[in-house]
Specification:
By secondary structure, this protein is of the alpha+beta class. The protein contains 17 helices and 14 strands. Strands 6, 7, 8, 10 and 12 form a five-stranded antiparallel sheet that branches. The chain has a four-stranded antiparallel sheet with strand order 11-9-13-14, with no helix packed on it. A hairpin with a 2-residue loop joins β2 (73-76) and β3. It is elongated and about 110 Å long. GO terms for molecular function: 4 iron, 4 sulfur cluster binding; metal ion binding. Keywords: 4Fe-4S, Electron transport, Iron, Iron-sulfur, Membrane, Metal-binding, Transmembrane, Transmembrane helix, Transport.
């Protein structure tokens, strides 16, 4: 099928083709080496990170990265996130989204092609499959062949290794939620909790299914990211594209030589289909931009190797912007515009958000005060004519030692403050929170802003929280 420029848009893959099992062929080249490097780095980070140590002080966990449900904490090296600081996680998700959109504006779905967990584990499973069953041609022959003892052994060994990798994936994941060396020992010896084994089983089954069987179906139909490509696709992004103005019309080496000898047009593409057979998604990039393309560059390696053997220029398929493909049709010089308003704006947004989060984390203290006004009743009228408001005061002690706080309130003249069922000095355990009831009484009408202050009796440092004092009339 020849390339038709009028059909060049961000097309969806054909369902009939994608529904068939894709059996990609191995390929070598610079992008394949880059993918192997990304795979090794990603797997190393995933499996090693839970075992890294970080000293936080006496009584604190020393695991560098830990989701501690018992304490209600998220530890990431020197950062400690409390449940009340979930907005940092929200900010992190927004930041990750901005980075993905920025990457898409620069190089399309390059995240999907190199760093996505589905891609990494699929590549690992394919490596095992090729090692046991052979490359594409051998695997295709074996798919329809009758079973024999050797074939049964191959299938059994492949699935056994796949399950072992999947179990390692699930086992490594649960290590992020408890002390890794201890939990690993418990998992191996059968002493771990039922919940731990349940999560290992769930992640084992999902990894085994998605990387072993679903593969390209996940990247094409299950993942929401390709669905957004139609809305955020950027013609200036460096995505994998076919230079049809150079490759068309296609033909064999012999036919091309004959046409060129006659002075007739002939393209560089020999229609060898190598770009299709190596594609892990099973698409033909020569048909134009496709939202299923994960920008892995394996078709670039395949095409470059063919062009090199035929002594023709490399780059028939390459990382190129669609705008430059159109310029090629007009015989204009290509222009690379990685730095443009869109990428600069997204980049500045990423830097600004990261900067705000970084400054906020660096300036936050190891204590905090929050005040919640009673809802029902909002105010109570006392026998002496005064109005009383009730508040729930919560003190956070994020340090590793016991702390004492004196509670005070300002902003309302001649008001009295009473700490219910507690002394004037409130004790808060290390790395803990404490709630106390506070009653404020005053002769006042309407609404009045008040400021609660908690002063550390040892250091003299104060933390504040604002709220309102309301009369019965003002609370309506």
């Amino acid at each position: 099928m020849s390339f038709k420029p009028e059909r060049a848009h961000l097309r969806k893959p054909k369902r009939g083709v994608i529904a068939e099992r894709v059996v990609p062929q191995s390929v070598s080249g610079r992008y394949r080496r880059l993918k192997w490097t990304a795979l090794i780095v990603c797997l190393a980070v995933y499996y090693i990170l839970p075992f890294l140590r970080w000293t936080r002080g006496e009584g604190q966990p020393d695991q560098a990265v830990l989701f501690d449900f018992d304490r209600g904490r998220l530890y990431f090296f020197f950062i400690e996130i409390w449940p009340q600081e979930v907005y940092y996680l929200t900010g992190l998700l927004v930041l990750a989204t901005l980075v993905l959109i920025w990457l898409n504006a620069v190089a399309g779905r390059v995240w999907c092609g190199y760093f996505c967990p589905q891609t990494v584990w699929t590549d690992l499973f394919l490596l095992v499959e090729r090692w046991i069953e052979g490359d594409r041609r051998e695997r295709l022959k074996k798919q329809g062949a009758p079973l024999n003892a050797r074939r049964v052994m191959e299938i059994g060994l492949k699935h056994a290794i796949w399950i072992a990798i999947a179990m390692g994936t699930g086992g490594a994941f649960v290590l992020y939620f408890a002390d890794a060396p201890t939990l690993l020992y418990e998992l191996v010896t059968g002493e771990a909790s039922v919940l731990s084994y349940a999560w290992v089983g769930i992640l084992t089954s999902t990894t085994y299914t998605l990387a072993g069987f679903a593969r390209e179906q996940v990247c094409t139909w299950m993942c929401p990211w390709p669905r957004l490509q139609g809305a955020i696709w950027d013609p200036e992004a460096l995505t994998v594209n076919y230079r049809d103005y150079r490759g068309e019309p296609r033909g064999s080496v012999k036919k091309t030589a004959e046409l060129r000898a006659k002075g007739e047009p002939a393209g560089d593409c020999v229609d060898c289909m190598q770009c299709v057979t190596v594609c892990p998604i099973g698409i033909d990039i020569r048909e134009g931009p496709n939202f299923a393309c994960i920008n892995c560059g394996l078709c670039v390696d395949a095409c470059d190797s063919v062009m090199t053997k035929l002594d023709r220029p490399r780059g028939l398929i390459d990382y190129e912007s669609w705008t430059n493909i159109q310029r090629g049709h007009r015989k204009e010089e290509p222009k690379r515009r990685i730095i443009r308003p869109k990428t600069v704006g997204l980049g500045l947004s990423i830097i600004a958000l990261a900067g705000v989060m970084g400054v906020s984390l660096s300036l936050r203290g190891d204590d905090k005060l929050t005040v919640i006004h009673d809802r029902n009743p909002v105010a109570v009228t006392l026998s002496d004519g005064r109005t009383r408001n009730g508040y729930t005061v919560r003190l956070y002690n994020k340090s590793g030692e016991m702390r004492s706080f004196e509670i005070d309130m300002t902003g309302l003249p001649k008001a009295t403050l009473e700490v219910v069922e507690d002394d004037a000095v409130v004790q808060v355990e290390p790395d803990a929170t404490r709630e106390i009831r506070v009653l404020v009484s005053a002769k006042a009408d309407g609404r009045h802003p008040v400021v609660f202050t908690a002063t550390d009796t040892k250091t003299g440092n104060s933390i504040i929280a604002e709220d309102m004092f309301m009369s019965n009339d003002g609370g309506r």
